[in-house]
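seq:
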Amino acid sequence: MTEAIATTEPPVWCRRTLIIDAAAMAGGALLAAVLLDPIAAGFAVLWWIATVVVVRWDLSRFIIPDTASAAIAGLGLFSAAGIGRVEETDGRIAALTAAALGGAVAFALFWLTAQLYRRASGRDGLGFGDVKLAGACGVWLGYADQAMALEVAAVAALAVVVLARRGRPERDLAVPFGAFLAPAAWLVFVAGPAVRHMVEVHG
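struct:
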């Protein structure tokens, strides 16, 4: 009689998930290190880790962990306060106010959009997790960058829907919008200044 041997080795799909997440985190860290100064890059890397968590959970479970959204918002407030920058003490209150206001405006707009869509269609279009995530990302971004991030996320989500429905136009798909919004907001924050600088130089 043979005995089953217990093993702690994770299944293949789990190992692949860990490899993908690790590669994504490493790629984000490298991009932040190249495009941002060291302190901003440090905050951006932590934000990116929370973003990977959001993407993983939203894609697999249609849930955005409150802890991830809270981490993104908290990091944004610390960054706005100039933590780690001795020379940025005078404008901390103004920067914190602007960051908090940006988050509140994003939260309110997404909440209003969700309510209007529910009343018009009779079903949910945006979950409350998406609303909280939008508010958290809004802490980091100015209003123009918020609009840019929303546009990037919407285009990416629409492209995925079009590809998924190819050959099956009647297929009704639920889109985990947070999985698109979180990386779009991060990318706008990290790469936006470099892109705008290139446009100004070569424009």
